[in-house]
Amino acid sequence: MGKGFSAGEESWRAGLGTLRQVVRQELVTRQLAAHLTAGRPMRVLDVGCGQGTQVLALARAGHRVTGVDSSATLLGDLEAALAAETAEVRGQVRLVHGEAERLADLVPAQDFDAVLCHGVLMYFADPAPLLTGVAAAVAPGGFASLLVRNGDALAMRPGLLGHWPTAQRAFDDMSYGNRIGVTARADRLADLTRLLAERELSVDVWYGVRVFTDTAASDAPLPGEEELRALLDCEERAGSTDPYRGVAALVHVIARRVLPVIAGRAADMPDNDERSSRRRRLRQAGAWAGAVGVYAAAQALSAWAGQREAGRGTRPQYSQFERPAFAPPGAVFPLAWSVLNLTTASSAWLVWRAPDSATPAPSRAEALAWWGAAVAIRSGYVPLAFGRRRLWAATADAALLSAVMTRYAFVARRVDQTAAVLAVPEVAWTAFATALSAAIAAKNVP
Fold first, then answer.
1. Backbone angles phi, psi at 220, to 5 degrees
2. Do the Cβ atoms of 354 and 430 come closer than 8 Å?
3. Is the pTM of this model over 0.70?
4. Any idea what the Cα angle at residue 437 is, between residues 431 and 443, rounded to 5°?
5. How many CA atoms lie within 13 A of 329 on its CB side?
6. For residue 61, how many other CB atoms are within 10 A of its CB?
7. Beta strands in 70-196 (DSSP E)
C-alpha cells in the first residue's frame, strides 16, 4: 500500500468482512475472472496485495501469484491465511515485502500476464511513477487491473448522505477523506486512460464497483445468504451497465499492453518482439515434434528389439496366444498407440511450455521426469512379451507403466490442466493393457 494508507491500516483491518468490503472484493473477483485464461496458469502480480483476498482466490484457481505490500502486518495476516491452505495453493504464492514505488527493484520487467493494483493509487499524490512501475511489469499481451476511486462521481456519496459542503467541493477537488480516516485521491477515467496510454496500456473495458452499497455504514454486517447473492448480482450488473457504472464509488479498469503505432502499423519493440514471438512459436513447434518423435522412436525401437529377438513380428505372435474374451484384435494396438503417441506427447509439450514463473518449478520438472520414465518403461514391454516370451515380467512392466503414467497425470495437473487431461487416455489404456497382459500370461504360462 501507499505510505498514506499506513495511518488507517488498523481501521482497514477492522472493516474486513463487512458489507462494503465484501462487495468490493467479490465484484472485483467476478470482473477479473472474465479476463483470466481458463485452464492455463497465469503469472499474476498483485501490487498492494494487503491481506490477500485476491492472492488467495487466484492461487486457488491455479495461477502463480506474487504479492507485494509495504505492510508487514497485512503480509503477516496473509501468511497466516496461507498456512491454512493446501500445500499446492501455498506453492503458488510468493510474497515480497516492499514499497510499491520501488516496484521496478522488486520484480522483473514485463514478466507478468496480469498486474493487479487495487485500492493503491488513491494513496499516492502523483499516480504517474506507480503507473510506470505497473506498466513495466506487464508482459506483452498481458493486462493491468486497476481499482481507483471514481473522480467523476466523487460527489455522489456525500450528496446522498446530505453532506453538502463536502459534495460541493468534490466536483472540483479530487482529494477526499475516506472511511479509514486518511486523506486520499480520486482519478477521473479520462485522465487515467491518458496516463495508461502514455505507458502503452490501452483500456479494454472498465467497470463500476459499489453502485448501490457505497453509502452503507462502515460496520454494516452482511445480510443473509440469499439476500447477499441478490445484492451482489445487482451490483455486478450495474457495474457493467450504463449509466449505473458511471456513478459507482470505485472504477475497475482493465488495460492491455499495446505496441506503439507508427504510420498506421505496429512498430517493432526495441527487442524486436515480433521476431522473438516468431522464433518462440517455431521453438515450441519443434519441441512438440520432438516430443512426438521421442515417443515414436521409443515405440519403434521397442518393436524392433522384440522382433529381432523373436525373428518375427508381434502381430503373428499375439494371434497365437490363448487370449481372454475381452482381448481386442491385433490391428487395434498400432492404432491405439498412434493416438496415444499424439495425446501423451502433446501433454508433455504443454508441461514443457508452461512459463517458469507461472508454475512451481519443482512440479514442472517432476512431471517431465515422470514422463521420461514412462517412455523408458514403455520401451520394455514388447521385448519382454514378444522377444523373450516372459509374459509375467511384461505384465509387471505394464503395471509399472500404468502407475508411472498415473503419477505423471497427477503432477501435470499442477502445471497445466489440459496436459493432465491429455494423459488420461494412456492411463486408461495402460490399466487395460495390464489386465489383458495378466490374463494372457495366466493362460499361456505353464
1. -60, 125
2. no
3. no
4. 140
5. 3
6. 17
7. 93-97, 112-118, 138-149, 175-177, 183-185
Cβ-proximal residues to 10 (8 Å cutoff; 6+ apart), any chain: none
State whether 343 and 249 are in the same domain.
no
Max distance between CA atoms of the chain, in angstroms, equals 99
Q: Answer yes or no: do 107 and 20 share one domain.
A: yes
- Summarised one tens digit per residue, pLDDT across range 276-320 is 445 555 555 666 676 666 666 666 665 555 455 555 566 677 777
Q: Which amino acid is at 387?
A: G
Coil, strand or helix at 81: helix
| Rounded-to-10 torsion of CA 438, 444, 445, 446 | 140
Query: Domain ends where: 258, 288, 316?
Result: 258
Note down the domain range covering 427. Answer: 274-444
Of 238, 54, 13, the closest CA to residue 146 belongs to 54
- Grid cell of 141 as nine digits: 499481451
Residues near 25 by beta carbon (within 8 Å), at least 6 away in sequence: 53, 54
Instruction: State whether 385 and 310 are in the same domain.
Output: yes
CA distance 100 to 102: 5
Q: Report the CATH number at residue 13.
A: 3.40.50.150
